[in-house]
Amino acid sequence: MVQIQSVHLGELTVGEEDLITFPKGIPGFEEVTEYVLCDVDGTYSYLQAVNQAELAFIVTDPFLHFRDYEFELSDELMDEIQLKEEKGIAVRCIVTWNNDPARVTTNLLAPLIFNVADRLGKQVVLQNTTYKTRHFLNSSILKESGES
Fold this sequence. Notes:
Blueprint: E1 2-6, E2 10-14, E3 19-21, E4 34-39, E5 44-49, E6 56-60, H1 75-80, E7 89-96, E8 105-106, E9 112-115, E10 120-123, E11 135-136, H2 139-145
Antiparallel strand pairs: 1-2, 3-4, 4-5, 5-6, 6-7, 7-8, 7-9, 8-11, 9-10
């Protein structure tokens, strides 16, 4: 068992099998390579750094919000996180939280890809796409208020 301190979640006790390794870290946080995914509810989770209590990302499954979200994984990426096939993959996107629910966004341009079986992860930046770093999650709220 591993003890983790989290600014957002308090003290956590997780099994070694729950640790996710990002061999090259996450861009901007390359020195941090071990995380744990902690579900908050059916929509959001925290990707909590194991050795830095203050480092956590709110993440969500993009397919819950954007049913037509799609991209292809390169053979290089598949090799890097030791994926043999596209089964056993989990995808999460980092959320930028806002007290105003209409302003909550997610980064569809750079999803987090997980090899579920081997507990490996990588953030990839998609190429040749219209996805951006800030897609509104609550677009119906914006439409009601007349914004886009």
